[in-house]
Structure formats: structure tokens, C-alpha cells
Amino acid sequence: MVAPPKGKIEPQIDTALETKLRIRAAKAWRPDEGDMITGRVVKLLLRQSEEFEPYPVVILDTGDHAYTALHAFHQILFAQLKAVKASPGDEFTIVYEGRQISRKVDAKGEPRTYHSYILVANGETADVEFNWDSDDIDELPA
Description:
By secondary structure, this protein is mainly beta. It has 2 helices and 7 strands, in the order αββββαβββ.
């Protein structure tokens, strides 16, 4: 009969189960202006609620034990993720540039603002091309 090892015994968790648990426990990234996050895409989810339109949530492995959830409800970030066709395994670095003032004005004549991001995926900057025939800039949410 083999004696059990001495010292603390760490429970072994199935890797697939551990990944699912880490995805469920992922904390949302809430950046301040200038904050940056780097990680590998683990999973893409669709966030749905009665309050908001559906939007993607990108689960990133940033190298820590816990995963981070990147909620892509801001138009600029969403467009950049779409442009690079974000998928599991992709490596991203994202910089939040903060709230920027647009040249457009709202119904009250006040300048509109938007949240700006820079996304680099797999070493390539996510350039979002504008299509004058199909993109309606007046319909983009702030």
C-alpha cells in the first residue's frame, strides 16, 4: 500500500470544468482613461437583458488565475472587435482612451461624446473602415 504524500493536498479539477468556472466568475473590466488590458480570448458570449440591446462579452485570459470579462457595448470597441472577427485564441491589447468629444451635436445643441478605444489584435491594429453607402453616422449611439 502506498502512503499518501505529506503536506497540503491540492484538489485536482478537470481543466474543462475549471475553465467553465473561471468564465462564470470573470470580473468586468472597468477601465479609467489610459488603462490597458492584454489577454487571449477564451470565449465569446452574448449578453442579453430587458434593459439594453444584446452585445458581445469577450472573456480574456490575462495570465492571472481569474478571467476578465470585456463588455463590448461601446460602439467603437464593438466595431473594432467586429473588424478583427474576434475569436477564441486571439491575443488582444486594448487601451481605453476615455470619453472623447465628437464634432456632432445632440438635439440640445450640446457636443456629443463617445468612448474611444485602441485595439491591437495578434499584433495588428484594428482599423475600422467606414462605408459611405451603408454607415449612418447619425445613428451611432454615444
